[in-house]
Design brief:
124 residues, 5 helices
Length: 124
């Protein structure tokens, strides 16, 4: 099952890299113009779900590899979002600081997309 999740994660990583380019080079500049602001805000908000799925998959894999299956199940029982804090804890315990900061940066990107997308959606 882990191999299946890893293959989905690899595909999602590629899709997120393309989506990040679209966000940086198309959607964020379109926020400048009033006529395209709503389209851009909706795009940012929808892309945030893709990044949320990517972050959840990454957290899932880190949790199962660093803390084991028991803690993965505990994280999933916490409404599914418990895998992110457990992945952060697992990366600290195994001193994988690159992975720790990667999770934090991905969570910040997710929060940015949701907040900016929601703000400009309500502004219109």
């Amino acid at each position: 099952m882990i191999n299946f999740i890893e293959s989905i994660y690899n595909i999602t990583t590629t899709v997120c890299e393309v989506a990040l380019c679209v966000i940086i080079f198309i959607l964020i500049p379109l926020l400048i113009f009033r006529k395209t602001r709503l389209f851009s805000a909706k795009g940012l908000f929808y892309f945030s779900y893709l990044f949320g799925f990517y972050l959840w998959l990454l957290s899932f894999l880190i949790t199962v590899k660093t803390l084991g299956l028991f803690w993965l199940i505990v994280g999933l029982l916490l409404v599914g979002i418990g895998v992110l804090p457990l992945a952060l804890i697992g990366s600290v315990i195994t001193t994988q600081w690159g992975m720790f900061f990667n999770l934090l940066i991905d969570a910040a990107i997710l929060a940015f997309l949701r907040i900016v997308g929601a703000y400009f959606n309500k502004e219109q």
